[in-house]
Design goal:
With 313 residues, this protein is mostly helical. Helices cover 74% and strands 0% of the residues.
C-alpha cells in the first residue's frame, strides 16, 4: 500500500478547514433541534457517498467482530460530538464554541500516547501550545460571561473530548479498512444513534420547512463531505494529532464567517489570537513532517535478525 500523499498536505488540510468553518454558521441559521440537524446531516452525507462506496460493501464480510464493535463505538462518539458541540452553539458564540473545540489536540495527543505510544517532538509540542494560546485568545472576551455561556462552554468541551476518542478509534481502524467505507459505516452508526435518541425523547423528525432541509443538505455537503470525510481520508497519511492540530484553523475561519454572515463582532484580541493560531499550526505541521522524515524506517533492521534464525534449519 502506498502511504505517500500525492499533493502537499497543506492543500487538503486548507480545504477541510474552510469547509468545517461553515458548520457553525449553518447550525446557527437552523431552528431545528440539534439532534435532528445532526441526523439529517449525516443521512444526506450517506446518500451522497453511496455511489462511491457501494462496491466496497463486500469488504464488510471480512471485518472482525471487534472492528465492527469499534465502528459502532466510533459512530456513537461522533453522534455525541455533534450533539454536544452543535448544542453549545445554541448557548454561546461561534468564537467561544469553536475555540474550546480547538483544544482537541490536547486530548488526542494524550490518548495517542497512552493507546498507540505515539511520540511527539518537543518542537511540535511548542507549536501546539502556541496555537492553543492563540485559540484561547480568540474567544477570551466571550467565554463565561453568563450562566448560559458557561453551559455552552461545557458542552463544547464535552464535544471536544468525545471527538478526540472518535478520531483515535479511526486512526486504528483505518489501518485495515478503506477510508470511504470507514466513513460510511461510522456515519450510519451515528445516524442510528441519533434516530434512537430522537425517538426516545419524542423529538419530531419530520414537518420542517424547506429552509431547514436546505440547511441539512448544506451541512452534509460542505462541512461533512469536504470536512470530516476529507479528514478521515487524510488519517491514512498523517496522524490524528496532526488532523486535530489543523482543525485549530476552524476558529479563525468560523469567527470571520460569523462576523460577516451573522453579525458576531471580532475584537482586536481575537484577530491577534487568530494570527497566533495559524503561526502555531504552521510550526507544528512543519516539525511533525521533519520528525517523520528523520525517523528511520523500522523494517530495515528486521531481516538482519530474522534471516540467521530462518537459515538455521
Amino acid at each position: 500500500m502506498n502511504n505517500e500523499l500525492k499533493v502537499p498536505v497543506i492543500i487538503p488540510l486548507t480545504i477541510g478547514i474552510i469547509a468545517i468553518s461553515f458548520s457553525s454558521i449553518f447550525v446557527k441559521w437552523s431552528e431545528a433541534p440539534v439532534s435532528v440537524q445532526g441526523m439529517y446531516r449525516l443521512l444526506f452525507t450517506l446518500l451522497l457517498m453511496l455511489p462511491f462506496v457501494w462496491k466496497q460493501f463486500q469488504l464488510l464480510k471480512k471485518i472482525s467482530f471487534k472492528d465492527a464493535a469499534l465502528l459502532l463505538l466510533s459512530g456513537t462518539f461522533l453522534a455525541l460530538h455533534f450533539l454536544f458541540w452543535m448544542g453549545s452553539l445554541k448557548l454561546t458564540t461561534v468564537a467561544s464554541s469553536t475555540i474550546l473545540l480547538s483544544l482537541q489536540p490536547v486530548f488526542v495527543m494524550i490518548g495517542a500516547f497512552i493507546v498507540f505510544k505515539e511520540q511527539t517532538s518537543k518542537a511540535a509540542i511548542i507549536g501546539m501550545l502556541i496555537a492553543i494560546t492563540g485559540a484561547i485568545m480568540i474567544g477570551w472576551g466571550d467565554i463565561g460571561i453568563s450562566a448560559q455561556h458557561i453551559k455552552g462552554d461545557l458542552l463544547s468541551i464535552l464535544g471536544t473530548v468525545v471527538v478526540a476518542v472518535h478520531m483515535l478509534i479511526g486512526q486504528k481502524l483505518l489501518k485495515s479498512i478503506p477510508a470511504t467505507l470507514y466513513s460510511f459505516t461510522v456515519f450510519l452508526s451515528a445516524v442510528i444513534v441519533f434516530f434512537v435518541y430522537n425517538a426516545f425523547l419524542n423529538i419530531p423528525m419530520t414537518g420542517y420547512p424547506g429552509k431547514e432541509w436546505g440547511i441539512f443538505l448544506l451541512l452534509a455537503i460542505i462541512p461533512t463531505v469536504f470536512g470530516h470525510v476529507l479528514f478521515n481520508w487524510l488519517l491514512k497519511y498523517v496522524t490524528a494529532a496532526t488532523i486535530s492540530m489543523a482543525i485549530l484553523g476552524e476558529p479563525v475561519g468560523a469567527s470571520l464567517l460569523a462576523y460577516l454572515l451573522i453579525g458576531e463582532t471580532l475584537t482586536v484580541t481575537q484577530v491577534i489570537g487568530g494570527a497566533i493560531v495559524l503561526t502555531g499550526l504552521y510550526y507544528f505541521l512543519q516539525n511533525t513532517r521533519k520528525q517523520k522524515r528523520n525517523k528511520p524506517p523500522a523494517p530495515i533492521k528486521k531481516p538482519v535478525t530474522v534471516v540467521p534464525i530462518v537459515k538455521k534449519g
